[in-house]
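User: Here's a structure from my thesis project, written as structure tokens. My advisor, Dr. K., wants to see whether a designed sequence matches the one we expressed. Can you design one independently, without my sequence as a hint?
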């Protein structure tokens, strides 16, 4: 059993997909990028901070000690971090910036247990079809872009904008499953009972 330091329903579904037993313990940290911070450094820093914040909260909540998983995703366009939109105007600007172009999505993952910390990340290159101002507005009005890095959800209606993806689909959703499973195995956390001899 582990703790997931996130309220994300997408990360919850992804962990369930690979048979991990977990409990969600949402944490609140400052997600502001630091000056000149690279996307890969940014997501690993936030994943680590979330995992450590979750681990610290176990004592206060009088919960049994177990590994705490933290994760963070960012969308990178020309090395610029596109976070969650603050409102309609920023969301539309992001979508139009992504229109007809390729961008990178990186998700950092951290697992904290006592004085041990495991880190990994997964990524993908995503190619958007051209998007009109009208399409971007209609998508914003659907409510889906709110709270999403880069203002879109690949597992939702936003999928209609995506021409192709190279790399980890689950990293774009919010938790790279191959990398996360490897990390959990290193920490001796049980996932679905796969045949190790296969």
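Assistant: Designed independently from the structure alone:
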């Amino acid at each position: 059993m582990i703790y997931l330091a996130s309220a994300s329903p997408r990360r919850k579904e992804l962990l369930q997909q690979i048979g991990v037993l977990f409990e969600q313990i949402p944490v609140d940290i400052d997600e502001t990028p630091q000056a000149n911070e690279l996307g890969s450094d940014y997501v690993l820093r936030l994943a680590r901070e979330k995992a450590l914040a979750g681990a610290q909260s176990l004592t206060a909540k009088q919960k049994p000690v177990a590994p705490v998983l933290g994760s963070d995703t960012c969308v990178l366009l020309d090395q610029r971090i596109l976070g969650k939109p603050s409102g309609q105007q920023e969301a539309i600007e992001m979508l139009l910036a992504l229109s007809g172009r390729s961008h990178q999505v990186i998700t950092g993952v951290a697992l904290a247990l006592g004085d041990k910390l495991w880190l990994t990340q997964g990524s993908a290159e995503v190619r958007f079809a051209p998007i009109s101002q009208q399409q971007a507005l209609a998508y914003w009005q659907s409510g889906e872009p709110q709270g999403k890095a880069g203002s879109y959800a690949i597992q939702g209606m936003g999928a209609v904008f995506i021409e192709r993806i190279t790399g980890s689909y689950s990293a774009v959703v919010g938790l790279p499953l191959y990398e996360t499973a490897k990390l959990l195995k290193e920490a001796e956390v049980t996932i679905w009972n796969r045949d190790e001899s296969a």
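When you compare it with your expressed construct, this may help: The two ends are 24 Å apart (CA to CA).
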